[in-house]
Amino acid sequence: MQRRKVRFEATTPGKVGMYLCGPTVYSDAHLGHAKKEVAFDVIRRYLTHRGYSVRYVSNITDVGHLQNDADEGEDKIARRAALEKLEPMEVAEKYYWSFMDDMGRLGVQRPSIQPRATGHITEQIELIQELIARGHAYEAGGSVYFDVRSWPEYGKLSGRKLDDQEEGTREAVRGEKQDPRDFALWKNAEAGHIMRWNSPWGEGFPGWHIECSAMSLKYLGENFDIHGGGLDLEFPHHEAEIAQAEAAGHGFARYWMHNNMLTIGNEKMSKSKGNFTTLKDLFERVDPQVIRFLLVGSHYRSITEMSEEAFVSAQNGYRRLHDALNEIERRLPTAPHREDVLSAKVARHVQAFEDAMSDDFNTPRAVAALFNLTSDVNAALAAGEVGKGALTQAQAAYRELGGQVLGLFAAGMAIGAADDTALVSTLMDVVLEARQHYRLSKQYAQSDALRGKLAEVGVTVEDTKDGARWKR
Ligand SMILES: Nc1ncnc2c1ncn2[C@@H]1O[C@H](COP(=O)(O)OP(=O)(O)OP(=O)(O)O)[C@@H](O)[C@H]1O
Ligand SMILES: [Zn+2]
């Protein structure tokens, strides 16, 4: 709101109420969506790490999000339902779970509360009634609009002045609005519109912005701490959220945070531009942990430019950290009990990490601290034995800061082919031994079948006078 960094003070000491505008569930999530979810997940995790008890509310939009911001066009979910020949609620359900699966693989923690717009029609209607009663909204033709001219503070978040906006707005979009800048709180449902509810103004459906005001107030109360979302939501969505809540007499969010966009070829990745990579496609070839590492490598307020090279360098960088942690854990059980100079260095890098994160969640600087830690750890490990205390401390730094805060180093990850060389070689020894056993006992059908299966995965076996050899 102030367009600068300010000191964070929780409304209730020790507690943080956070609201993040969630997805409109009508298609599979792409990498741009992941940037937003991971950015706010890290913020939540860091606040938790600092001892706050965080209530994290993130909504699911399953009604009311129309094709364009001027309150016109089809509902995104209903349009998809027609395309896929599904019920609108089937579409919402399908893509909701798709979203949750993808975010789960990226290590995004589930919200404390994940309210759906269709489950809160009553709350939205009540808020609209309050706005009408206070003279900040009016009914027209079964729809209700927010009266922007009645609320001089409209524009305070995005810094837009009403007069600037007027120039940019076409008369054509005015329709039944008293002012083209007014926005829909409730829309009259025309014949054939499937998603519809009874209201004091006839059958209709809520506007997109009202759900977030109604649901954040319901679950976080007035003056809750942090409201987040993508920078593209600042106007009109967040501006509208503030106006709806405050004009109805409620205190609203105290800190506003917006993530910048993920771009590809310097253009925002987006569904409508068609320049997107779905997470599901990406997971086929890049480990979700590496994707997450790549995302935390840039600041939430910065643009993240995507490229193949970026994946490769993320993969290498992440492997470097991961290898150091593995080596620490391998050596820990036999490490000697003694003081070690590494201890003080670890403490310094931990402090650098905390300082970076306490400065507007500066994840690239925090990651740099982990790399500096890794250089010192590797140097110490290469020089010989390292004291148990220092190793334990270093392990805790990776697990707590990299693991708990950044959401990395999850168990059971596959980090890519190069790490598997030794394993593959050992497994091939086992397979060739089994084949040799078949041959010696004249079970040629079995030994040929094994060779055939290996050929299918691109491994050829040659019998030489020194025994079987394999190559890819
Ligand atoms: N490229 C991106 N980088 C960062 N955040 C994004 C990106 N694309 C979408 N988001 C975030 O996800 C939210 C939901 O996005 P939305 O469903 O509108 O996706 P989209 O691909 O931009 O779709 P469309 O092009 O149809 O608007 C956005 O409000 C935004 O905050
Ligand atoms: Zn919202």
UniProtKB/TrEMBL annotation:
Q: Which residues form the Cysteinyl-tRNA synthetase class Ia DALR domain?
A: 352-423
Name its species: Deinococcus rubellus
Q: What is the first-listed, main subcellular location in coarse terms?
A: cytoplasm
- This chain belongs to the protein called Cysteine--tRNA ligase
Gene3D superfamilies (alphabetical): Cysteine-tRNA ligase, C-terminal anti-codon recognition domain, HUPs
- Annotated positions binding ATP: 271
Q: Which Pfam families match?
A: CysS_C (PF23493), DALR_2 (PF09190), tRNA-synt_1e (PF01406)
Is Transmembrane included in the keywords of this UniProt record?
Answer: no
Q: List required co-factors.
A: Zn(2+)
Q: Which InterPro entries match?
A: Cys-tRNA-ligase, Cys-tRNA-synt_Ia_DALR, Cys-tRNA/MSH_ligase, CysS_C, Rossmann-like_a/b/a_fold, tRNA-synt_1_cat_dom, tRNAsynth_Ia_anticodon-bd
